[in-house]
Structures are given as C-alpha cells and as structure tokens.
Write a structure and sequence with these properties.
With 71 residues, this protein is mostly helical. 69% of the residues lie in helices and 0% in strands. The protein is built from 6 helices and no strands. Helix 2 packs across helix 3.
C-alpha cells in the first residue's frame, strides 16, 4: 500500500469528503484529489496538520501501523 491509498483510507475512516478535508486543511479539494490519485505527494505540512487536527500521530496518517502488522 502507498501513501496515496493510506491518505484516502485515513480520510474515509473519518467519513470526510475530499472537500471537507480540504476545508479543514485550508487547501483546494483538487489538491486532496491529486494526492489520493498519486499525482502529488502530501507535503510534510499536510501530514502534520492532519495529525494535529484529528488528534492522531503522523504514523497513523501514513499508515505505518498497517505496514508493521503486515510484516
């Protein structure tokens, strides 16, 4: 699994649309769409903002726990 898929799964697990997540982050929904489709990576600031606003770790946003469980 890659960051684009993890990013999308994280958003969906919080029952957010791309537009809703974009509004929370103060970015365009096109940017979220591009990240989820793998056309651009999320910035470090995007990941940090998500972790802060959703009270989780950056590892959770990146899906690192999933990688550990798969090994």
């Amino acid at each position: 699994m890659n960051i684009s898929q993890n990013f999308k799964e994280f958003r969906e697990s919080r029952n957010l649309t791309q537009k809703e997540l974009a509004d929370v982050l103060g970015v365009s929904f096109q940017r979220i769409s591009q990240i989820e489709r793998g056309f651009r990576p999320p910035s470090a600031n995007d990941i940090l903002e998500i972790a802060l606003k959703f009270n989780c770790t950056t590892d959770e946003v990146y899906g690192i726990d999933k990688f550990r469980k798969e090994d």
